[in-house]
Amino acid sequence: MDTEAYTALIEQCFPHLTIRTARPISEGWDSFVLEINNKLIFRFPRRADVEEQLTREMRLLPPLARTLSTPIPHFDYIWHGNNSQPLPFVGYRKIDGVPLDNIRITSAHDSTLAASLATFLSELHSFPIAQAIQLGVPGHTQAQWRQRYQHLYQEVERLVLPQLNEPARNKVRRLWETFLDDEANFEFQPAFIHQDLGCEHILCDPTGGALAGIIDWGDATIGDPALDFVGLLHCRD
């Protein structure tokens, strides 16, 4: 499907919405994203597993928003799918702000962004685990978290290592095995995490550097809170 097809789908499912402009802003592996009328964002899942994630977001985001001081999407348009239009999708009012990977935060604004991110992460990781699981968020103990990485390493061995030369294969093996063999890497207090907190999902005020919003919650899970800091490291590159 292309922009015209997705726009037509919105018009069919929400005939009261007058569409004046439609602009694709993301065509990633998981979702196709349209900006409508310069003020609405519509997300369309590309795969069945992403449809499941989106359904979970529908349940999760309203109670989560009540615990966060940072804006997150509020789905004003929800299409669950039916026999004639089976694809579920959502729309929400665009959150003011620019993705962190699209702007350069000056050193003068570093402290402002750092403080607002610290507040957000503290609130996020304090969201009750029991409530998250009740809302359908996957849960992981430390042992399950380790098994997850062991499975990922098996996939790396099967799919990636055969494509590398011997020195590169040995380096990758050492990195993975060192990580998996270190008990300290799996000694953490499980928390509710975003799990995909990259620069593209962090919206900022380009003038003052303050955090404006966090988007794309489909990968949210219970796991190691340190993972939510990994993407921030790449934001400095």
Amino-to-carboxy terminus distance: 34 Å
Text of the CATH class of the largest domain? Alpha Beta
> Roughly how many Å is the radius of gyration?
20 Å
Q: Report low-confidence residues grouped into runs of 5 or more.
A: none
Q: Output the CATH homologous superfamily of the largest domain.
A: Aminoglycoside phosphotransferase (APH), C-terminal lobe
What is the tally of beta strands? 10
Strand coverage percent:
15-25%
Continuous helix count: 7
Which class best fits the helix and strand makeup? Answer: alpha+beta
- H/E topology pattern: HEEEHEEEHHHHEEEEH
Biggest sheet architecture: 5 strands, antiparallel
The percent range for helix content is 40-55%
Q: Which strand order do you get reading across the main beta sheet?
A: 1-2-3-5-4
Oligomer kind: single chain
Helix and strand arrangement:
Blueprint: H1 3-13, E1 22-27, E2 31-36, E3 40-45, H2 48-65, E4 75-79, E5 89-93, E6 98-99, H3 107-124, H4 129-134, H5 142-160, H6 166-181, E7 191-193, E8 202-204, E9 211-214, E10 221-223, H7 227-234
Antiparallel strand pairs: 1-2, 2-3, 3-5, 4-5, 6-8, 7-10, 8-9
